[in-house]
Amino acid sequence: MRFEVQEGETIEQCLARMKKEGYTPVRRTEEPIFKEVIRNGEKDYEVIDSHIVFHAVKQ
User: Helix, strand, or coil here: 16?
Assistant: First the structure.
């Protein structure tokens, strides 16, 4: 089962939600979210957020 940390939700709240549903985390993946910015006529990318997903198994 996969649990995504929702917008406005902390990691602790997501873990509590998992526990309430009877799941235990076994792996965490985190992917950065980039924003394209043009500086001095060149494209540059900066991290604006991250997407966190927990993979979990039933207890």
Answer: helix
